[in-house]
Each structure stands twice: as C-alpha cells, then as structure tokens.
Amino acid sequence: MDWWEAVVLGLVQALTEYLPVSSSAHVRVIGPLLPHGSDPGAAFTAIIQLGTEAAVLLYFRHDIARIVRAWFGALAGRDGRDRAARLGSQNADARLGWWVILGTVPIVILGVMFSDAIETNLRHLYLTAASLAVFGVVLGVADRRGAKVRELKELRGKDAVLLGFAQAAALIPGVSRSGGTITMGLFLGLTREAAARYSFLLAIPAVIGSAGYELATNASELTVSGGPGFLATGIATVVSFALGYFVIIWFLKLVTHRSFLPFVVYRLVFAAVIVVLVMTGTVPALGG
After folding, report:
1. How many beta carbons lie within 10 A of that of residue 218, not counting itself?
2. 173 φ, ψ to 5°?
3. pLDDT single digits (tens) 116-168
4. Most buried of the four, 146, 253, 260, 275, by CB within 10 Å?
5. Cβ contacts of residue 41 below 8 Å, gap of 6+?
C-alpha cells in the first residue's frame, strides 16, 4: 500500500468513525477501489481506529478525567461506605463510569466468541450492505419516535446493558458502532447530544481493546504479501487522528440542532452503491 492510499483511508476513517454510517464499511469498500486493490483487513481497520479514538481522548479529556476521579473516589468510599454509594448512587459521574464498564462487557465477550467470523464471513459486502440499509431505517425510526428528553445522568444499569449490546452489533461492518449506540440511546429516550456523547465514551475501551487484540493476534496480517504494512497503517492512523478531532466538534454541533435523517438517507444510498459494485465485479464480495 502506497503512502497516499494510507492517507486516503485515514481520511475516510476520520470522516466516518463518529458518524452513524460505519467507518469499517467505508474502509472495507474503498480499500479495493484503490490501486493497492484489496480489503485492508480487520487488523488494519481496528488499528487505524486508534487515531480517531486518540482524538476522542483529547476532546473529552476533561470529562474523562472527571469521570475517572469520581469513579475511583466512589469505589474508595468517598461518597459513602455502603455498596450503593460505591457503585455511584451519590455521584452521576461515578455511575457513568460504571455504565461504561458494564456497557463494554457485551462487545468483549461477543468479540472473542466470534473473532474468526469477524475476520472472515462477517466482512461479506452483501451483509455489509444489508446492515447499512436495515440499521439505517432503524436509526430513522428511533430518531423520529424517541422521546429525546433524558440526559446521561439519568442512565440506569439496564440502559447500559442495552447500549452495550447495541455497540456490540457493530462487530458486523455496516452496523456502525456510533450508529448502534445512538439508535439504542434514542429508543431509550436520550437526547441526540446525550446519545452521541455516550457513544463516544462507550467506544473508548472497545476501540483500544480491539486494536490491542488485533496487534496481539493478527499483526502478521499487516505484513503478509499484499498486506498494508506497518508504515501505511501508521500513516493512516495519524491522519485519522488529525482530522478526527475536528469531525467530533462538527458532529456534536450538528446533532444538537438537526435530525439524523441525512445519515439515514446516506446509509441507504451507500448500501445500494455497494450492491452495484459487487454485482459488477468492481469490488469482491469477500476479501481479495
């Protein structure tokens, strides 16, 4: 993979990671359209997400620091010695910390259980197209029918579990990690901004964990014949970080005042484009 192809994939990752349109689907489709001409692979996709996640850590650094302090303080008994207080009953930030931990469990368990399928069959582009279309429609329904009145401090344990499973659905390219979490958040009555913010926070341990797992188990995928290589992967990661920060700012401003309808339409159009690309033989449906 040439350096400029890595830049292109880094830009694609940054522009799509936070939006409910599935960054993994875009990287999966655009990779074969480049001169390098192949699916960059699950390892490449997971690792370049570290760039966009670094942008999340930078943007939300004050929120994250506050949540971490509150969580450790509650656990140490600062807000009370009883079990409920240690679990955040007296502090909304401490509770949020627990909900992020609880919401991360589903994607960890399912990611390990179905790791082989995630690397192979779940990357089939017909499945990707179907996921884009179906979950796009579901996002539209959630945005239209959701009460959009609850804030993050009102989350409960069962909400965290449901949001966690919604995020885990994004193990299938096309679902979208942010899209799944935001959709469930809207169904649970969260405001658009609250749902988007929680999707950012919930993704932090999942993305970092996924990248670490891929490096530990599939790093060789990057250097095999036809693989992207470490240098290209690094370039794409840096580019995704540089642009990603500004995409976060834009997206949070957008969802404060606008509906998710443009993203629903985009998902349906993108799904149709994928089907055409596969049917015409422009992009292979699975690997290659």
Report:
1. 17
2. -55, 135
3. 887 778 889 999 999 999 999 999 999 999 999 999 999 999 999 999 999 99
4. 260
5. 119, 218, 221, 222, 227, 228
How many whole angstroms separate alpha carbon 214 and alpha carbon 188? 32
pLDDT at 288: 52
SS3 at position 150: strand
Distance of CA 155 to the CA centre of its chain: 20
CA–CA dist 89, 30 (Å, integer): 46
- Looking at residue 141, what DSSP letter applies? H
Distances in Å between the Cα of 229 and the Cα atoms of 51, 222, 233 are: 16, 5, 6
Q: What is the pTM of this model?
A: 0.89
**Residues 280, 65: Cα–Cα separation, whole Å:** 50
Six-digit token string for 277: 């690309």
Predicted pLDDT of residue 91? 95
pLDDT of residue 239 exceeding 90: yes
C-alpha–C-alpha distance, residues 175 and 248, integer Å: 19
Question: If DSSP codes are grouped into helix, strand and coil, which group holds residue 190?
Answer: strand
User: Domains of the chain: which residue ranges?
Assistant: 3-279
Contact (Cβ atoms closer than 8 angstroms) between residue 239 and residue 10: yes
- Please answer whether residues 106 and 168 qualify as being in contact, where contact means their C-beta atoms are separated by less than 8 angstroms: yes
